[in-house]
Amino acid sequence: MNKLMQYGWSANWDQAWSKEDRGLHNPGRITADFGQKYKVMTEEGEIWGEMSGKMKHALQSGGAYPAVGDWVELQRLEGEERGIIHGVMERKTSISRQKAGMKSAQEQLIAANVDILFLVTSLNDDYNPRRMERYLIMAWNSGVNPVILLSKADLCDDADLKAAEMELIAPGVPVHVVSALENMGKEMVTAYLKDGVTVALTGSSGCGKSTIVNWIAESASQKTQDIREGDSRGRHTTTHRELFLLPQGGLMVDTPGMRELQLYDDDGGLEQVFTDIEAIAEGCRFADCRHEDEADCAVRQAVENGELDEKRLQNYRKTQRELMFQMKKEARAQRKMNRMDRSVKEPVRRKSSYWNKRMHDEG
């Protein structure tokens, strides 16, 4: 099989490639992201890639940098095992979050062109349905199909109850209980891994993502660490994002664990995750009801009647406020960028007007 086809190249990508004048460039897929350097799979094999100076300059004014899973335009350097990345093909899907520690809204791309996103949470003290709701919003916003994996089932006595709880907060989303230690649920996971299909894993630190990669790949390609017994928290085992070709077909992206998931934007994910609350809210007296202390609030009534979990409503309101704040930050950042553009262009316009007038007077 063609090397690129193993890594997800298809007739659709071929058609998209042929629509543009790519010159002497060739397609390649980013398999690992090390910041300034990337590993890129080509028809001849894997090589190192770096962005061209022109591409770096263009990205300084905005836009997401290349990510694992991206298809890129690559110029291979003759006689060397490296190449220059000149562009990124339009992404089919993109998994992103708000970049941590930034005052302005900035997108951090986690992986691109992913078909299925495994949302992993371990069945120990780290188990948290409210966190899973946030991961689901990220998945739906990204345009990928989410699948929930409840890992480390060997550490839990009520795995079935927790699976049922997850099914309630994620209607229609597959939920699988797995244990790499006891080889439980492997056939359910591998059913998603087909030729050309890209699957990514995400979750908090220590939830078992790297263990799942090794378990599925039947290798020790990813390092793992034990979690702390005191609080079931793990350390970052995976330090970079990497895409693996699996022996049974399909591709898997492992990503570093997240201490905290900050959502970047909302493209209908909030409404899709909280469909129950959105449906109940249609019965509120006021269309802009915040479900706090307004009169005739159907959502608050549902909580009082025991039809809706109070914690789920709290998370809905918290996430809604967070997304609105992110939108405001993004709008402020855009206004600032527009002002900077004007401040640069204005002296140029004044200088141009001066010379035009002088040439006219001297003429």
TrEMBL record:
Its EC number is 3.6.1.-. Signal peptide: none annotated. Keywords: Cytoplasm, GTP-binding, Hydrolase, Metal-binding, Nucleotide-binding, Ribosome biogenesis, RNA-binding, rRNA-binding, Zinc. Residues 332-363 are annotated as: Disordered. It is an enzyme of class 3 (hydrolase). One of its GO terms (cellular component) is cytoplasm. Binds 1 zinc ion per subunit. GO terms for molecular function: GTP binding; GTPase activity; metal ion binding; rRNA binding. Residues 112-259 form the EngC GTPase domain. It comes from the Bacteria. PROSITE patterns: ENGC_GTPASE, G_CP. Residues 103-261 form the CP-type G domain. InterPro entries: G_CP_dom, NA-bd_OB-fold, P-loop_NTPase, Ribosome_biogen_GTPase_RsgA, RsgA_GTPase_dom. Its cofactor is Zn(2+). GTP binds at S151, K152, A153, D154, G203, S204, S205, G206, C207, G208, K209, S210, T211. One of several proteins that assist in the late maturation steps of the functional core of the 30S ribosomal subunit. Helps release RbfA from mature subunits. May play a role in the assembly of ribosomal proteins into the subunit. Circularly permuted GTPase that catalyzes slow GTP hydrolysis, GTPase activity is stimulated by the 30S ribosomal subunit. This is Small ribosomal subunit biogenesis GTPase RsgA. The lineage of its organism: Bacteria, Bacillati, Bacillota, Bacilli, Bacillales.
